[in-house]
Every structure is written in structure tokens, then in C-alpha cells.
Amino acid sequence: xxxAAPTTFSSSSTTSSALSKLLKxxxxxxxxxLGFLSSSTPSLNRLRASASxxxxxxxxxxxxxxxxxxxxxxxxxxxxxxxxxxxxxxxxLSGHDEYIVKGGRNLFKLLPDAFKxxxxxxVIGWGSQGPAQAQNLRDSLIEAKSDIVVKIxxxxxxxxxxxxxxxxxxxxxxxxxxxxxxxxxxxxxxLLISDAAQADNxxxxxxxxxxxxxxxxxxxxxxxxxxxxxxxxPKNVSVIAVCPKGMGPSVRRLxxxxxxxxxxxxxxxxAVHQDVDGRATDVALGWSVALxxxxxxxxxxxxxYKSDIFGERGILLGAVHGIVESLFRRYTENGMSxxxxxxNTVECITGIISRTISTKGMLAVYNSLTEDGKKEFExxxxxxxxxxxxxxxxxxxxxxxxxxxRSVVLAGRRFYEGLPAFPMxxxxxxxxxxxxxxxRAARPAGDLGPLYPxxxxxxxxxxxAQIEILRKKGHSYSEIINESVIESVxxxxxxxxxxxxxFMVDNxxxxxxxxxxxxxxxxxxxxxxxxxxAVDKGVPINRDLISNFLSDPVHGAIDVCAxxxxxxxISVPPDADFVRPELRQSN
Length: 587
Prior knowledge:
Active site: 219
Radius of gyration: 23 Å
Domain KARI C-terminal knotted: 300-446, 447-583
Number of strands: 10
Catalytic activity: (2R)-2,3-dihydroxy-3-methylbutanoate + NADP(+) = (2S)-2-acetolactate + NADPH + H(+); (2R,3R)-2,3-dihydroxy-3-methylpentanoate + NADP(+) = (S)-2-ethyl-2-hydroxy-3-oxobutanoate + NADPH + H(+)
Family: Belongs to the ketol-acid reductoisomerase family.
Domain KARI N-terminal Rossmann: 101-299
Helix content: 40-55%
Strand order of the largest sheet: 1-2-10-9-8-7-6-3-4-5
Low-confidence stretches: 1-71, 580-587
């Protein structure tokens, strides 16, 4: 969820011949077989046939055991790295050795060494990530007694100038200015404008960058867009990424809390796509440490955009929206009051389930239930797992093939290029979300809501299905756990508990908002039409699914990550402001 908010720019209509030579098509890599059973593969059809001959249902144990218990695929590239400034540590996640750098304010003194040769960091854009990253970088560098300038670059006439000034940046002291002047004058350019704006303006950004400067991204979206066009980044600049596993307001909120408790913050992944002078890794790690990341793990730009865009449409936002809509209808249709139905869906997921997973893991949710509650959980989990996996697998393939990226780019042009207005309308006017307003207004401070077993079973099934797909597609455990578990329960869900799921869907990044609107109805529909129907028909619980859930190695990996977790929980007041600037102004 690291994408920034929409910013309008005029596209450069021509590309210089020099720039065209730099934008060389990337070398094509042969497609890898990752061992996942697609619904159309001959191997799965043969397995279905054998299960049918054995008298098993299509979702029976023969099929399920094969699909769920297949071994995880190791990442196709090495994610080891070398740093001359920070201490690299090895952790073992379910039998896989991975490397991280722990953060903390005690490391700020190393930032001048990490940023050696950098005199100005240009933060381009003031959306979701821009304000948080600019302020965190500035504050960390001040604490490190560094004279590196953090400068905000905005388009001329942007209404965000006022907000940047209010945060302490100004034209007078050289920390606020025009976007293109900022790009040209910076040694490290953090491109935090919206995904669609990056797609429309990358040529002009590249042409303004100094040779041997460093392009910093907080999302791999631009790489996916370039790949879809057969292009790559210019070869005269380094390209790195630091991707906080949470939205900008979480990055800033936990950093501020970390002033009292060392290490509080949002974990980040980092990637070095190209390194022209050997500085890229230390600069990326310095950037992450300066943001307050408790720990930083390695990935690639390609793996990042696949897991991130996929995650937004899944457990982080889109699927959660679909789940609660489906379950709220079910509970009220079965006679539950609207207020209790809301508590047993939204409040349950964003409150007690998230807090339990955050501190103790998914198994603790199951183990905290009564015997009857465990039976309800198992029925919901068994019925929901494969329907959720069906939609998630399709979504991942749409992201990996760049279909979702093209959809975001085209939507950005529809919304911001003067065509007939097709804005994304709000979703918070239906009955469910009006009930939610009343529930939150009457909610005692600190109330995390009830632990409703059926809702827990559906939600955990979704989380496990998403973990399984990322695992089969070769993502590291660090990336899987941070994208599918930690970002959900430690960043997004606490904000949704404070303001409601609908508020998040209406106010997060454009890429995430588009994805949620597109995929939430798919999850709603398939749960209603398949999972809930199976429960009502009394379809037997798939014991192989439950057994595999209880013994899945991911739980051990989550435990290791939990030990690296800061002791502080994010503090989100009921009036928490994470509205993107242009929405706040228009409203």
C-alpha cells in the first residue's frame, strides 16, 4: 500500500533521442514453472478425475491435500546483499535463511555514511507517502546532525504547497519548490507521486535527473509499466526502492510514537534494481532506517509490485470489503440485529482478530475459541478457502501480466485528463456503513469488538489462501508475512477500526481504491454463491484443509517476525486523518 496519492502533471509529448537510447528493453527471462495447480492444467484435471473415481467431492481430501501441502517454492533470485554501513543479520523463516537489517534510532548516527555523496534528497509528491517520508527523513537527519537537505518538489499551482509549508517546509529555506527544479537539483530523487502520474511522466522525470544520481521508488509499479512497454530505466542512474509495509499516515504515526519507544515504525522492503557506482544498497538501507523501519528485508522491484498490488486487492482491502459485505447480509438475513451484525463482521476483523494475529499469530485466534466455536471456525474456513483462492489466483495473474497496471494507468487518464468526469464515488452511504457510524459512536474506548468464530474462519481462510499463492509464486517469507499479515493487522486494520472499512476504501491511494472497487464484488459474490451455500447444505468439513492450517510452517515464520515486532501498538484516534490532500480540499 505504498502508492502515493494522485497528482496531475502534463505528459512530455516527445522523448529526446538520448533518452530513447537509455530506455533499452529489458532482457527477457524465460518463464518459470512455479508448480501451482491452475484450474485449467492437465495435472489438476487428472487429479479431479482420480478424486471423482474414488468417490470424493470436487473439494474433497484427495485434491485438497495435494494443493495445500505442496512444498514452498524458493525465490528464483538470491536476496542476499552486502552493506558496508549497517549490520546484516540472518534469520530463519520455516527453514529458509533470509537477511535483514534491524532499525532503531540508535542507528541514525550512521546515516551520513549511508548517504555519502548526497547533498539533497528530493521528495516528489505530497500524497500518502510523501508527507510521512519527507518528515521522517528530515527529523532523522537532524537527529544525526547531517546537513543533507530534504526538499519537497510539487507542480506549480499545487494546493499541497500549503500543507507542505504547515509541515515545516518552505521556499525561503530551500526545502520546498517546483517539481522539475527539485528533480534536477537532487542527488536522491524519491518519486512518490501517484502510480498513474508516474506512468505519464517518467520520461520527463528521467530527462531531468542528474547523471549518476539515484532514483528512489516506494512501489515497483513503474517497473511493471515499463516492462509492459518493453522498456527499462535509464542506464546512467541507480534505481532503488524502499517500500514501507503500510500507508503513509501509519509510517508517520509510528515514527512519532517511536520517539518514546525506540524501534517503533513500519517494516520496509528494499530493492536495488541497478547500481551505477556501488552506493545503492547502503543508500537504500539508510533511507529505510531513516523512515523508522524496525526491520528491512530484501526483495526485487518485480516481486514487490506483484505482491503489493495483489495484496491491496486481497487481504489488505478489496477482499476484506467483499467479506464484510457478504457476511453482514448473511447475519442480518438470519435474524441478527444490524448493530450486532456489524460488530460481528467489521469490528471483529479490524479489532480483536487483528490484535490477536499481530501479537500472537493466526493459531491463537483458533485456539482462543470454545469447542463449539472451533467447529464454526472450521466450517467457515473449509467452505471459504478454495473460493477465496480462486479469485486470488486470478487476481495475481492479472497483476503479473500487467493487466492491473494498465487498468490503473487508463483509469488515471480517465479521471485526470479532462475527459468526461468518471470519478470514483464513495461507498459509505449504504445501510451497513451507516450502521457502522452508530456503532463506532457508541463504542467504549479500547473496545476491540467480539471474536465471532464464523467471521474468523472466513478471514483466516482468506489470509492463508493469499499466503499460499505468494509462496507458490516464489516470494520470500519476509515478503509474504509483511504483505499479507503485518501490513494488514498492524497498519491498515487499526485505521479501519477507527474510521471504518468504507472510509479506507474511499480515501486510500488511487491504485488501491481502484483495485478494491474492482475485486471486492468478486469476493462478495463467490463467498455468497459458493462458500455460504456449502455451509447451508451441510457439506462436510475438509479435514485435510484444517490439518494443514494447524500445521502450516508459516506459523513458525510469523512467530520469528513477531519477535522482531516493536512493543508498541499503533495509536489511532477516532478522528485520525489519512484523507489524501486533494480529497480533503474537494470535500
